[in-house]
Write a structure and sequence with these properties.
heterodimer, A: mainly beta, Lipocalin, ten-stranded antiparallel sheet, 13% helix, elongated, B: mainly alpha, Fumarate Reductase Cytochrome B subunit, 70% helix, 2% strand, binds protoporphyrin IX containing FE
Chain lengths: 181, 184
């Protein structure tokens, strides 16, 4: 239902602003992250996600985004790690298959930089969060790039033994790259 | 006592320090690789990598020493084949204590886990992430280690034979406290 509303509002808004772009090129977009294990940066990605984004480069403040990540599609860097992070103490993908972000506001930070504010839901927990990003127009596409720190323990990701942040740091850098047409 | 010339203190210190670190890194490697993924495993792998890099650096220093010094001569009584065997084992051991850490470093790079020495100094990844290559390098690391285990057993066995059977003072050249006649 929420998704339907989002799509409807997305459709209606694209009528209102001709320059608005909302077709996310999923095969060219990525959601990646870097965690620190014993101070070693380890890269990972989510291979499957859906993204409804609509943004008018001349009026980014009116933009909206709703991202949904299929957590079981994680590649955390090794086979062992992939099995581990789907388990109960990490994402518990059986009970919580998806993580989502729904924007409520986009703020201009100046010099081509913006910030999306909204609600992040992971493992059944919803927190206000913010994701700064840049916009770049290139050969008929619009590119959104951003990085933000996420504190995994705020969402109970990696509990029990794994909550020892001297081994796996609390802060994880999340990097997103969306290509819109 | 057939020969009293002994190794320099630099050589003796490096030899025993490296030996001691290898005796720690080897069982640690065996133990940690069989553990299930856990915070302990991640810690031990890091300690193992730091130990291995230390061994590598000390070995580079040791080879630099070796390039400028000739070890004391072997006892006259040793046969030609024994001399050849001695030199071969020593050279192979040098080769392995360079090749083993290198294979570990390359394996880590191929597996996508950089080596950050003591958690502060990131070492460059000489090769990019490549899972299949990482698996091969793990096998290489393991095989080289078993090769080294065989050589170390031969090396220790020969040292003990020289000490207890031949009684030619060879072990005391590397372990001066055994040298009762020529105490410094
Ligand atoms: C002389 C130095 C070293 C010794 C004696 C040594 C010895 C070993 C041994 C015996 C194993 C277990 C092999 C097996 O049964 O699978 C092992 C595993 C391993 N070594 Fe080393 N190693 C040395 C240096 C290094 C270095 C410098 C690194 C990395 C920078 C390294 C990284 C690893 C890793 C990551 C494993 C675990 C492989 C896995 O289970 O996935 N090692 N090592």
């Amino acid at each position: 239902m929420i998704r339907l509303l989002a799509i409807l509002s997305l459709l209606s808004s694209s009528f209102a602003y001709g320059a608005e772009l909302s077709a996310v090129q999923l095969n060219k977009s990525t959601i990646a992250f870097v965690s620190r294990q014993m101070n070693v940066p380890v890269e990972g990605i989510f291979k499957q996600f859906s993204a409804q984004i609509s943004i008018d480069p001349t009026k980014p403040e009116a933009g909206r985004a709703r991202i949904e990540i299929d957590l079981a599609s994680i590649d955390a860097g090794s086979t062992d790690a992939n099995d581990e992070v789907k388990g109960k103490s990490w994402f518990n993908t059986r009970e919580f298959p998806k993580a989502s972000f729904a924007s409520s506001e986009v703020k201009a930070l100046g010099s081509g930089r913006f910030e999306a504010l909204g609600k992040m839901t992971i493992k059944g927990k919803t927190l206000e969060s913010r994701a700064p990003f840049t916009l770049k127009q290139e050969k008929g596409v619009l590119i959104l790039d951003g990085t933000f720190p996420l504190k995994r323990l705020d969402f109970g990701i990696g509990s029990g033994l794994w909550s020892d942040t001297s081994v796996v740091a609390d802060e994880v850098q999340v990097k997103f790259h969306f290509v819109l047409k | 006592m057939t020969t009293s010339a002994r190794y320099t203190f630099t050589a003796i210190r490096l030899h025993w320090l490296i030996a001691f670190l290898i005796f720690a890194a080897f069982p640690l490697g065996l133990y940690m690789s069989d553990l299930e993924l856990s915070p302990l495993k991640l810690q031990l792998i890091s300690y193992h990598k730091w130990l291995g890099v230390t061994i590598f650096l000390l070995t580079v220093a040791r080879l630099a020493w070796r390039a400028k010094h000739t070890p004391p001569p072997l006892p006259e009584a040793m046969l030609a084949w024994q001399r050849t065997a001695t030199h071969s084992v020593h050279h192979l051991l040098y080769l392995l204590i360079i090749a083993i850490p290198l294979s570990g470093w390359l394996m880590s790079s191929a597996k996508g886990f950089q080596t950050v020495y003591f958690g502060v100094l990131p070492l460059p990844d000489l090769i990019g992430k490549d899972k299949a290559l990482g698996d091969i390098l793990k096998e290489v690391h393991e095989l080289l280690n078993y090769g080294m285990l065989g050589l170390v057993i031969a090396h220790v066995g020969a040292a003990l034979k020289h000490h207890f059977i031949d009684r030619d003072g060879i072990l005391a050249r590397m372990l001066p406290f055994l040298d009762k006649e020529n105490r410094p």
